[in-house]
Predict the 3D structure of the following.
Amino acid sequence: MAGKASRVCFRHSLLTLLLTLSACNMQLRALPGAIAEAPGAAVPRSGWTVIAPGLEWREITQDKDQLSPLKILRIDPGNYAFRARYSPAKPYSLAQWRAREPEAAAIVNANFFDPSYRALGLVTSDGEAQGSPYLERGGSFIVNKGQAAVRANTSMSQRNLESAEQAIQGFPLLVEKGEQAYFGQAKQERARRTAIAEDEAGNILIISAPLLGPTLGDLSAFLAESDLEIVTAFNLDGGGSTLMAVRDIDYFQPSFDAVPAILAVYKR
């Protein structure tokens, strides 16, 4: 994204280094009993580990590819609330965001941003909207009247966005109406990824590829074809901004860059 192109090669080097480090050194702590599917196995119809009522964890290795495992947190909005947090004047590392949001059960990075750390698209925190909303591309995670949802921006009205209590946006749209939504015409590169989705039951899924993740086209196809029952999903800022923490299982995936916007999850 804008302001980051000059760091792509550097990040690729860091990614290569990351692959040689142990999970412990990178604070990638595995949940005891968590399911990591065998390489090449079809995505099973189970595999969720319950962290707490309304909060579940799953790890999936795709198509014999050990370098692009997906870490997935499934959240029941009936048990958990969401809050967007935005700090363009001072972006933070994962450790700093955790210190600022000590009660958060989970944290994930949100919008793309420019070189001045201003979020691209709309960020709404506690009813205070900042940025210019995307209406013709990508997707939105919104909370309206306490109800959380993931929607394609082409199906959203500006009024819906303006009335949101919490909102983050990203692009491209990966899944729409349960179908693959991104195919991509230009050559696609693999990178760390972050995405957010809503499934058929109304659960919110936070999805992270913390190592050398899939291309956007491959991720779009996988999410649509898997047993995750995703209705809508879109891409959040990835690469050096990929950040995820799940407190109760001590899973901490730090970003390479400080980020100005996150989505935090709290037990109701």
